């Protein structure tokens, strides 16, 4: 396995910039998710790592080996990068059995039959497909087909594994079980994995770190916990998790911590900047209390199974979100106690 290093990577299609000066390192053995809305550049970044696209600017290294450099026009082809790829569409040969699908990359490399069989057995075992080796793809479920695609990717002992929205075609229950398959596989193999998705629940459940992308740049690269609890921009605060971003004023620092005024109340805030401009209010920052810090009106109530999501409008006009163990009614006026939210700068 190896690090994947991108230095000042840009990619243009005509006059349109799909990626703009991306510099980052994907650590050896980590599970990194590329997360963002459609058109943010995450799939383009994956295709550059795979070698399917050439960078307009910058360079890419896999371990100590440079595989792409726009200045020198170096571009090592995909088959020589030793990177495994799992696509959304499975891309299985319909006329080949599971074993033949998994072992086909080894046939192309002309490995001996004994070595092919040993590697196929290991890949099928790693993906829990040993009972299905003689079946055809048409006899498998969607989740089993996706595991065949993963096994085929693993059989060549790749330096890294790239996954391009591999669960997008599966139903909700199957996606949850396949998340466990990918996580277990990563734990067993310690492979470097780069996972493209627009589904934040997938990214938060599986990834060691998440690169949140927007408009061709990585706006924040951090652990799932840090992205949720300590977003560095309004985009990340609004894109990750539920909650609201509200402006604050009059921030001050003292020995007892930081304070600021938001929603008309003077409150303690958590921050690591001297001049925060916004606060991220997660549902857990808001507790229903008649003697709370602010008043709000219930606009919508949604049952989530054991609890209710409340969409609120504060007396100052901002939209808020919290949760309740009991059902309220739209139009109810409630008090809210605010615990110290995370505050960040405007940039």
From TrEMBL:
The keyword ATP-binding applies. GO terms for molecular function: ABC-type transporter activity; ATP binding; ATP hydrolysis activity. SUPFAM superfamilies: MOP-like, P-loop containing nucleoside triphosphate hydrolases. GO terms for cellular component: ATP-binding cassette (ABC) transporter complex, substrate-binding subunit-containing. Residues 4-240 form the ABC transporter domain. It comes from the Bacteria. InterPro entries: AAA+_ATPase (IPR003593), ABC_transporter-like_ATP-bd (IPR003439), ABC_transporter-like_CS (IPR017871), ABC_transpr_MalK/UgpC-like (IPR047641), Mo/tungstate-bd_C_term_dom (IPR008995), P-loop_NTPase (IPR027417), Transp-assoc_OB_typ2 (IPR013611). It holds the Pfam family ABC_tran. The keyword Nucleotide-binding applies. Keywords: ATP-binding, Cell membrane, Membrane, Nucleotide-binding, Translocase, Transport. Belongs to the ABC transporter superfamily. This is ABC transporter. It comes from Celeribacter baekdonensis B30.
């Amino acid at each position: 396995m190896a690090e994947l290093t991108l230095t000042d990577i840009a990619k243009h299609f005509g006059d349109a910039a799909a990626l703009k000066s991306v510099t980052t390192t994907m650590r050896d053995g980590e599970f990194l998710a590329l997360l963002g809305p459609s058109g943010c550049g995450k799939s383009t970044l994956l295709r550059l790592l795979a070698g399917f696209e050439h960078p307009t600017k910058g360079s890419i290294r896999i371990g100590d080996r440079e595989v792409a450099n726009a200045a020198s026009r170096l571009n090592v082809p995909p088959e020589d990068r030793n990177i495994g790829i799992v696509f959304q569409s499975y891309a299985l040969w319909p006329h080949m059995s599971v074993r033949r699908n998994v072992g086909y990359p080894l046939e192309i490399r002309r490995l001996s039959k004994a070595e092919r069989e040993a590697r196929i057995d290991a890949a099928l075992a790693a993906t829990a497909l040993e009972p299905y080796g003689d079946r055809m793809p048409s006899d498998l479920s969607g989740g089993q087909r996706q595991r065949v695609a993963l096994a085929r990717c693993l059989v060549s002992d790749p330096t890294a594994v790239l996954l391009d929205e591999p669960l997008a075609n599966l139903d909700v229950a199957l996606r949850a079980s396949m998340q466990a398959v990918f996580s277990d596989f990563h734990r067993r193999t310690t492979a470097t994995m780069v996972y493209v998705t627009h589904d934040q629940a997938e990214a938060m459940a599986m990834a060691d770190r998440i690169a949140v992308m927007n408009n061709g740049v990585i706006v924040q690269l951090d652990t799932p916990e840090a992205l949720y609890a300590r977003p560095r921009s309004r985009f990340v605060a609004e894109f990750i998790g539920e909650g609201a971003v509200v402006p604050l004023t009059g921030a001050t620092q003292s020995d007892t911590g930081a304070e600021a005024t938001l929603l008309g109340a003077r409150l303690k805030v958590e921050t690591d900047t001297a001049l925060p401009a916004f606060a991220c209010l997660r549902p857990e920052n808001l507790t229903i209390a008649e003697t709370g810090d602010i008043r709000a009106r219930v606009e919508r109530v949604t049952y989530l199974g054991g609890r209710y999501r409340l969409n609120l409008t504060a007396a100052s006009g901002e939209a808020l979100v919290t949760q309740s163990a009991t059902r309220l009614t739209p139009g109810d006026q409630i008090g809210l106690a605010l615990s110290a939210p995370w505050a960040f700068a405007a940039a």
